[in-house]
Amino acid sequence: MLLAARSNDQRQQVKAAYKRAYGKDLVSALKSELGGLFEDLVVALMTPPALFDAMQLQKAIKGAGTDDDVLIEILASRTGDQIKDISKVYKKELGGKLEKDVCGDTSGHYQKLLVILLQGARETEVQEDRIEEDAKELYAAGEGKFGTDEEKFISILGNRSVEHLRRVFDAYRKISGCEIEESIEGETTGNLENLLLAVVKCVRSVPAFFAESLYRSMRRAGTDDDTLIRIMVSRSDVDMLDIRACFKRTYGASLYTTIQEDTTGDYQKALLYLCGGND
Fewer Cβ within 10 Å of end Cβ, the chain: N or C? Predict the structure, then answer.
C-alpha cells in the first residue's frame, strides 16, 4: 500500500532509486509477485501520467474494435497541455502518431471533433461579443432547424474556452428554454452524441463528469474494473477530493463506501488509499 499512498512523482523516484540500488526494474519485479486486478492497478500506478493516458488510448484504438468510451473520456477531459504531452509521449514511447491512429479508427463528424480536441488548442479567453452569437448559432444549428448542422456544434464546442462555453450555455438556456445537453441528445446520435455530451459535462465540471463515470463503473451488473482503475489512477493526484464531493452530493453515498462494496482484497485496499478517505 506504500505505492498507493504516494504521488506519481514520488512513485517515479522510488522506481529510479530501486533501479540504482538493485539494478532491476521495479515494475517487472512487482509483476512477478502480483496477479489479477491488483497487478493491473499497481502497474498503472507506476506509469507516468502522460504515458498512462497514451497507453490507454493505444489500447482503445489497437484492440479488436475501438473502445470509444476511452477515447471520449480522455480527450474530452484533459487540458490542452496534457493532450499535447500525451501526443508527444505516444510518438516517443509507442512509436506512432496519435492523430493518425485515431483517424484510422474513426470517421465522420465524430472523427472531426476528436481531431480538434487532439490539437490541444482550445481558446483561453472569453469573447464577450460572441457569447450571444454562439448561443444563437447553436440554437439555429439544432433546435431551430429541420436536420442538424453538426459542424457548428463541433466548431463551437471544440474550440471555445471553457469559461466562454459556460456563459454560452447560460445564454442558450434563455434562448431555447432547455439545456444544451437536451438539444444534443435530441439532435445527434451514437459516438458524436456521446463525445459532445462529454465535452459539455467537462466544461461544466470535470470532477462531476468523473463522479458519474465512477458511479456507472460500479453500479452495473459486474464492476467495470478497467474504468475504475483508469479513473482512480489518473485523477488521484489531480481532483479526487472534488470528485468525492460531487459523488456524495449527486448519489448520496460516499465514493469510499461504494468502492468497499464493489471490490475486495489488496485491490480494494489500494483503491481506498487512492480515494483518500471516507466522507
Answer: N
SS3 annotation, 10-44? HHHHHHHHHHHHHCCCHHHHHHHHCCHHHHHHHHH
Q: Which residue in this structure is represented by grid cell 439532435?
A: 187
**Residue with the three cell numbers 492497478:** 41
Beta strands in the chain (DSSP E): none
Which residue is listed with cell 451514437? 190
CA distances from 249 to 71, 211, 242, 253 (A): 27, 10, 11, 8
Q: Encode pLDDT of 200-229 as tens digits.
A: 999 999 999 999 999 999 987 789 999 999
What is the rounded CA–CA span in Å between residue 246 and residue 255?
9
In this structure, are residues 139 and 176 in contact, taking their beta carbons and an 8 Å threshold? yes
Measured distance CA(238)–CA(218) in Å, rounded? 21
Grid cell digits, residue 200: 459539455
Looking at residue 145, its pLDDT comes to 72
How far apart CA 16 and CA 21 sit, in angstroms, is: 9
